[in-house]
Amino acid sequence: MKSIFVINGPNLNMLGKRETNIYGNKTLKQIESECIKQCEKINFSINFFQSNSESEIVEKIQSIATHFDGLIINAAAFTHTSISIHDSLKLLNIPVIEIHISNLHKREEFRRHSMISPLANGVIFGFGPNVYNIAIYALQIGWENENQ
Ligand code: DQA
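That is the input. Now the predicted structure with DQA docked in place:
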């Protein structure tokens, strides 16, 4: 059984209340339960972690290194600033999918630069909360292709 870990960065615990015109009305809990349903259908396990603290995210990335088959990360605002998350992702030997709910290129200039993208296998953004489901699918088809 493939195992996926999902990391969400600062302020994503406020989804559903936060800038709903940009991020939509779903809460993080609702998004997570949809991901769980999706993974149950394909027999993947999925675990979630959210933190507003950069150091906690770095420590989490360090601790998952050998325990999961794939990482989906929405580092939120840390995407644009964090050398320490960038460095910690270098420890991983598993596929990493960077996601963002909003279309970063439609927004402020400072959101166009990502410290995560150079370490990601791929980046998905702009499709609202569906980016979580699309990322799971991206991992799934990647693994299926490996087995062909
Ligand atoms: C975000 C985009 C970031 O620029 C922002 O700081 C976030 C959320 C997104 O999911 O669209 O907090 O990562």
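The pocket of DQA is lined by residues 11, 74, 76-77, 79, 100-102, 111 (CB under 6 Å).
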